[in-house]
Amino acid sequence: MRKPRITVIGGGTGIPVILKSLRDKQVDITAIVTVADDGGSSGEIRQALQVTPPGDLRNVLLALSDMPKLYEQIFQYRFADSDGALAGHPLGNLLIAGISEMQGSTYNAMQLLTKFFHTTGKIYPSSDNALTLHAVFTDGFEVVGESKIAKHKGMIDHVYVTNSYNEEEPTASRKVVESIMESDMIVLGPGSLFTSILPNLVISEISQALRETKAQVTYVCNIMTQRGETEFFSDADHVKVLNEHLGQKFIDTVLVNIEPVSKEYMDINQFDEYLVQVKHDFLGLQDQAKRVISSNFLNLEKGGAFHDGDLVVDELLKIIEVRT
User: Fold this and answer.
1) Is the peptide bond before 190 cis (omega within 30 degrees of 0)?
2) What is the pLDDT of residues 35-57, one digit of tens each?
3) Which domains does the chain have, with CATH numbers?
4) Is the pTM of this model over 0.85?
5) For a Cys-Cys bond, which of 83, 126, 160, 278 suits 79, CB 3.0-4.6 Å?
6) What is the bridge-based pairing of β-strands 224-226 and 216-220?
7) DSSP state, residue 155
8) Which PANTHER family match (predicted)?
């Protein structure tokens, strides 16, 4: 029997948690990764070389690879602050950027690197061009650039993307639409709603594919609200924003963590962007999605509240088993 096909869409540090747990399961995995990051090392590299930002791709590559611990440490090594032009850059970011330039595209680079690092699944940038994220706030003010969005006080009305280095309409990278259409399940998140998940979904080809796919679309709702993005949001608010951006209720299932997070536990110095636990609105969720699964998906670690990848994946596989 063929393996179930699961495509995970997002970026940041959220989806690697899910991908690590999926890696050991009997599933065919595809990761579609955002290319709108313009901060930190990724932002400097994309500006200098006009390539897609490598940071989120680096994290996904590590999550799906069986590379020995020493290789991982080399790949993740970050140059010291005293290292001049290289200061703060992870070696893996430079490697991805260099191979992207050598191969002529980030798509080609990732196909080479997935073989080199023996990854379990396939990794596709959502677009082969670096994208610029635009956020339009409810007061009409527009912020340009993913790294600047959280600095503007107010509620985001909607986001959209443009190509960073040409005037053409943003397009999906090769195989992305095909993967969405041929999947048994699409997993959105976990991750920053406006800056990790939506930058992929607002590419017109991807949004159209998500509206048309017969795959089970599952959203893993965030555990904590995020400063400058989802302050005061309930779980239903998260799903409503996704549906509004695609113009229809396309989410089939929402996974919601109901295990409480103690305010005293969170390390506000290390995780200052995360504010309070997302409020529950189950009536609102039932209006926005076909099914809601609420359970303990919590992993408390190093002063932060994260998803437990194994618990989430166990639930995802139950959904697929019922569906197939």
Assistant:
1) yes
2) 999 999 999 999 999 999 999 99
3) 5-323 (3.40.50.10680)
4) yes
5) 83
6) unpaired
7) -
8) GLUCONEOGENESIS FACTOR-RELATED (PTHR30135:SF3), UNCHARACTERIZED PROTEIN YVCK-RELATED (PTHR30135)
